[in-house]
């Protein structure tokens, strides 16, 4: 390695990004150093602000820097329908692909007993309280169509139906084993509108 | 966009990286926020240190955080041979691919009159002083095999030969229009050892 220690440390730091190997990290480091230091400084600042300032919405549990996210804080959404997803990116994908106007709940994962992720770790007790106290009429289960996502949907469906709330699952227009956030808008929209009652 | 303003700003900041579009920026932001905040903080710190602390070696003009880079500061290299390259990454590529033991000079670009980059902008006056005052016996021109790289090599060759210094050009084992830093080690090593006198 002919690069100076600090440049090597910068390259190493880029490796924390998904899909970034040695060669890509090298190109990123030199690109900023040679051509865009202001961009690099801005990225540094935004990383620092976001890593320290982003928490979770007290209501839907998605990632945001305020006590409540803008979607939960607004009063233009339909409180009778709640869509449960695994990740914040799924909210973005659904907002873009569908005309859903209800509320969300973001699990930040799925049930995975082998990894020590049970109902408590996913905040399902908080979700249960919402089932008990709200005007909810339908819970849409939009977890990923994986084994864990299906098990999580089933678990939450049982919780909701105990309270007499209808539960639906987005249609499997998407291949099993896939992940929601990778699916094109058309397929996702189709799957969403084709949701069916869970039995 | 359902993402919070700060998350949107972080995504936007990632766009300064080469090859990073909206979707990749989104994945990077959420990956760090959901799974690796420590990595994100470390990247922020290293970016800040590097953007502010990396200058250019007073000798070979490559990027480094010290007055003189470690390669120039060391006394194990052969002062009679100087290899001229366009970019710091080319030094790394040559150090990895060849057994070259001489010195380097890094132009940080090439002659490009239309973009206002002339001999002065590339620091060629400093290079001229080295030609006048040193024990140099050979200048290896390892600029990219592009139109601009060839013109730059020719210009520097003329400067060197005015001082009676032999100049060589790395062999064109590489396709015209290509860039040195993308070429595999084997091809680069072959081209380097097959260099010939400029006429
Ligand atoms: Zn919220
Ligand atoms: Zn140097």
From TrEMBL, chains A, B:
Annotated keywords: DNA damage, DNA recombination, DNA repair, Metal-binding, Zinc, Zinc-finger
Source organism of the structure: Thiogranum longum
Xref: PANTHER family: RECOMBINATION PROTEIN RECR
Domain Toprim: 80-175
Family statement: Belongs to the RecR family.
InterPro entries with a match to the protein in the record: DNA_Rcmb_RecR, Rcmb_RecR, Rcmb_RecR_Znf, TOPRIM_dom, TOPRIM_RecR
Function of the molecule: May play a role in DNA repair. It seems to be involved in an RecBC-independent recombinational process of DNA repair. It may act with RecF and RecO.
GO terms for MF: DNA binding; zinc ion binding
Name of encoding gene: recR
Domain of life assignment: Bacteria
Gene Ontology biological process terms in this record: DNA recombination; DNA repair
PROSITE patterns: RECR, TOPRIM
Chain positions of all zinc fingers (C4-type): 57-72
Entry protein name: Recombination protein RecR
